[in-house]
Amino acid sequence: MSPTLSHQFKRDVATCIRASAREFGQSASIRYEKLISTALEHLADNPTRNGSREFGHVRLYHMKHSKEAAAVDGITVK
Fold it and tell me: How far does CA 16 lie from the centroid of its chain?
């Protein structure tokens, strides 16, 4: 089951990725985008995975739990 992503979420992510590119460079931006997509894939595969918790009608998950899996050329988001 795929997570439902609101239009606002998609806009916010795009804004964050652009800001990351400006502040930290294109390579860092690519790693950050990979981390976000990997975290979303992890939650889609197993919504109750270690590190996630239910909070009202939403599920919270810190992306740090997907950091190693999202490495690009062996480099992770700091």
Answer: 11
3-class DSSP state of 21: helix
Counting as low any pLDDT under 70, the low residues of the chain are 1-3
Token output for 4: 């439902």
- pLDDT recorded at residue 1: 59
Calculate ∠ Cα 70-4-28, nearest 5°.
25
Cβ neighbours of 42 (radius 10 Å): 20
Q: How far is CA 35 from CA 55, 56, 57, in A?
A: 22, 25, 24
- pLDDT on residue 75: 86
Q: Three-state DSSP class for 54? A: strand
Give the three-class secondary structure for 53: strand
